Amino acid sequence: MLEKEINSYFTEVLKRDFSVESKLEIEFEKHYTKFFLPPMRHSQEGARKRYSGLLDNGEMEFKGLETVRSDWTMLAKEFQQELFHRFFHEKELKQWIRDYVQTLRDGGFDDKLVYKKRLSRQAGDYAKSRPPHVRAALLLDPEGKKNLKEISYIMTADGPIPVELYNGGADYSHYTEKQIKPIADAVLFALNEDFDSLIEGRQLNLF
User: Fold this and answer.
1) In angstroms, rounded to a whole number, what is the distance separating the alpha carbons of residues 97 and 155?
2) pLDDT in the model for residue 205
3) What's the confidence (pLDDT) of residue 201?
4) What does the DSSP assignment read for 38-79?
5) Residues 103 and 184 in one domain
6) Closest-CA residue to 84 (of 73, 96, 98)
7) If the chain, 207 residues long, is cut into consecutive pieces of 10 residues, what is the mean pLDDT of each piece?
């Protein structure tokens, strides 16, 4: 077994060359049958601590990617999970991505567009900068004094709207560009493709 051979090697070398007892121990943890390290944005180098792998038992593991982050939408998480499933199992990708975006534009994923974000302080205390979740919170609490802990909102053409006040009108272009595109491009890069080129022929149908 590789683990035993490596430990034996270090034990022997340290004793022979340095006359010390080895305190090093390599431990086998898991084995990926396939492993993917997405490139950093605007770079061809792999992003550190961000990867996905296919384990021996067929399960996928995600580290540092959108699917395990609490501040990304269910739309993005489910897209990424299916994207990597197809990528690892060498299933068709390009048409599936086109169809996914079309379904989004047609309103088929309206139940998956919610952002959830925690507030580190009262909404009214954000003076210099008011990110989307703070603006959404202020629509529920104009005075910014209710000490809201978390806000759920949907991006619309009029900006972020809390789910309590949402009556439709999601900004599908936002979700395409900010949620789907960066996830897709991370994988399409490895196939010498890119998101914009992939859906260019569908643009008239998407808008």
Assistant:
1) 21
2) 44
3) 55
4) PBPTTSSSBPTT-EEEEETTS-EEEESSGGG-TTS-HHHHHH
5) yes
6) 96
7) 84 90 83 82 56 89 80 94 95 96 97 95 87 95 87 97 97 97 92 90 45
Q: How many angstroms separate the CA atoms of 56 and 53, rounded? A: 10
Residues 130 and 68 grouped into a single domain: no
pLDDT, tens digit, 9 for 90 and up, residues 9-57: 989 988 899 899 988 788 888 888 898 887 765 544 545 578 899 998 8
Q: Which of 50, 23, 20 is nearest to 37 (CA)?
A: 50
118-140 burial code (b ≥16 CB/10 A, e <16): ebeebbbebeeeeebbbbbbbbb
Place of tokens 């809201």: 148
Whole-number Cα distances in Å, 58 to 32, 111, 183:
9, 29, 22
Range of the domain at 199: 32-112+170-206
Residues 52 and 87 occupy one common structural domain? yes
Q: Domain check: are 60 and 77 in the same one?
A: yes
Strand ranges (DSSP E) for 114-173? 115-118, 150-156, 159-162
Number of domains within the chain: 3
* Cβ(113)–Cβ(154) below 8 Å: yes
Q: Could you give the CA distance from residue 207 to residue 201 in angstroms, rounded to a whole number?
A: 12
Query: Any residues with CB less than 8 A from the CB of 194 and at least 6 apart, and which?
Result: 185, 188
